[in-house]
Amino acid sequence: MVISKNDLLEKFKTEIKPEMTSISYNTWIKTLDIQSVEGNHIVFIATSEFHKDVILNKYKDLILNTLAFITNRTWTYSVIDKDEKTKMEEKENPTLKKSSNRNESLDSKYTFETFVVGKNSDLAHAAALAVSNAPGVNYNPFFIYGGVGLRKNTFNASNW
């Protein structure tokens, strides 16, 4: 019996959901996707490197047992994160241009390249880098508070 990767993913999520708490399922399994199924090996796509590590280390037996239950076959699996998937796609198709997250309307003098780091701004610089490198992960939510005229509105991590 040949099963498509979308059908396999749907059945997998349906079967594994009752075996976990709803918070664990929603956090770790619901967002998983399948990149490929080759023979008895599945490549899952995780949302981040941390997500990938949790799937590989914490849920290995549960995932393998669920896949075996659904298909009556022994499986192996690996997990890549979205960044790895993007890099793989760029290698396979070099004509793909890497998309830029930078807003073209952003004033070039308000970028990380021109940010002056000193004793009074090193914390702001470190926090801004953490937020821009992993939006929604570190410092979530991220608020900046300060007096009038301190250019807080130009400090928008989503534009970097």
Short description:
40% of the residues lie in helices and 11% in strands.
Task: Please explain how this structure is put together.
The chain has 160 residues and is α+β, with helices and mostly antiparallel strands. It contains 6 helices and 3 strands. It has helices at 5-16, 22-29, 49-57, 60-71, 82-92, 122-133; strands at residues 33-38, 41-46, 76-81. It has a 3-stranded mixed β-sheet. Helix 1 crosses helix 4. The longest helix has 12 residues, at 5-16. The chain is elongated and about 65 Å long.
Count of helical regions: 6
Radius of gyration: 21 Å
- End-to-end distance: 48 Å
- Overall shape: it is elongated
Percentage of residues assigned to helices? 40-55%
The major β-sheet equals:
3 strands, mixed
The total of beta strands comes to 3
The fraction of residues assigned to DSSP E strands is 5-15%
Oligomeric state as shown: single chain
Which strand order does the major sheet show?
A: 1-2-3
Q: What is the H/E string?
A: HHEEHHEHH
Unreliable sequence segments: 155-160
Briefly note the structural class of the backbone. alpha+beta
User: For the residues shown, what is the average pLDDT?
Assistant: 80
